[in-house]
Amino acid sequence: MRSGITLHRSPEHSMAKRVAVVGAGVSGLSSIKCCLDEDLEPTCFERSDDIGGLWKFTETSKDGMTRVYRSLVTNICKEMSCYSDFPFQEDYPNFMKHEKFWGYLQEFAEHFDLLKYIRFRTTVCSITKRPDFSETGQWDVVTETEGKQDRAVFDAVMVCSGRFLNPHLPLQSFPGIHKFKGQILHSQEYRIPEGFEGKRVLVIGLGNTGGDIAVELSRTAAQVFLSTRTGTWVNSRFLEGGYPFNMMVVRRCRNVIAQVLPSCVLKWIQERRMNKRFNHENYGLSITKGKKPKFIVNDELPTCILCGTVTMKTSVKEFTETSALFEDGTVEGNIDTVIFTTGYTFSFPFFEEPLRSLCTKKLFLYKQILPSNLERATLALIGFIGLKGSILSATELQARWATRVFKGLCNIPPSQKLMAEITKKEQLTERGMMKDTSEDKLDFISYLDDLAACIGAKPSVPFLFLKDPRLAWEVFFGPCTPYQYRLTGPGKWDGARNAILTQWDRTMKPLKTRFVPDSSKPVSMSHYLKAWGASVLLASLLLVFRSSPLLKLVRDKLQDRISPYLPVSIW
What we know:
Keywords: Endoplasmic reticulum, FAD, Flavoprotein, Membrane, Microsome, Monooxygenase, NADP, Oxidoreductase, Transmembrane, Transmembrane helix. By secondary structure, the protein is of the alpha/beta class. A hairpin with a 2-residue loop joins strand 6 and strand 7.
């Protein structure tokens, strides 16, 4: 035993298992609660002095931790991005500033009494397999608190340190960048717009962060240039009628239709819908040919482009001391600051090789959670996913599933079988016989349904239509809110049904701040049916017949017949 390190031994196997949770952010809090729900004993290690991870705002970036910038507003509405048994208060806005969201995390932690399981100002130094790991699945965890190291043995580990630890700064991809005499930043360092007044700023990378920073700086900087290699589709936070985008789009009925229609038809429909608000090509935002579609949420970017405060540019070819030369041959001079919003890379500094490298490859993670090479499934990576929807909702279901795997209540294939399948996929991908989709964003409903089915928490829509038609209608035709995964199975919540039936009340409550006596009456059900009748009928038919092998045949035939007649532009 190393000097200065205290050793804690694991309890006997007949007792509740001890679980180490790394990080007390969004996924760490849900992991602690899921451990408690399964009668496990969690100990959470958090290197900062508070919960919330990146949602805890700080004025500076001196601590080296990734934090939200001051102006950040959530881009997924509250009903779609809450813990499944803890709805937001009804008066909370649908999209909220970061401090409001952090307040929700605090309420969640206090309501379920989670804070006593967290050791603050504690850094995880190493997580290593014990010599008898193949029999016990146990881990040695070394931590450091105020200069003092401590070692403990845990039966399982849940890594919840997030995807935003290690900034990706690809300077080597930009010739001449080392000659540039201006300021160079990564978005991790950005907090506030003060200090950029009157400057000419180049933002490289067009994700949600790049769009947000460009818009915010356009109000103070002399000019903002926004460079993108791929382009992007820009969503608003609300759709026609002013309803939250996520609640109108993420629905089971739409998901069923999307699974049946040919991909070329879906792509055509998507392009028409996205260009209905504004023509992306005219605004310099259209997807580059051959690139995968990307989506961001930004209500103001099109307006900034229209007003000239943000100028769209192609990718940077080369830098000089004061200028940027772009791929289309244009040059922008007198650049004062370059901000890279180029994302992050996965980082697991506390693991040894080869586990450290394997964990960065999504292909090696079973259900995007469990490393496939381990003899014992006692390590879970929570929240390291790309998802077309709320990460919070997904991390909670990941934690629910992982804790039941730890207890032996959910079976997984043997490690040898998983690794053999991965090797086969790698070989097929290298030969060009299979497309590599490991880095693609996952479909929200499909992924959550898959995890929920494993623990017995996936709602049965046909059964609900027989038992509770009103609830079934909301589950299938309404937004797929997290409460749906608390209707049945382990972790069932008695308040789930009411939460689903009142979700629109909580959505409308913060908007009803001005009483108008002569306001029009609510839309009648008959009008609702007229507007959605065709979609409802189609989705219902598909729900009934979705299990039929005939559907796949029909879809494939449609794909072959329709593709030649669709506009070339959609490809």
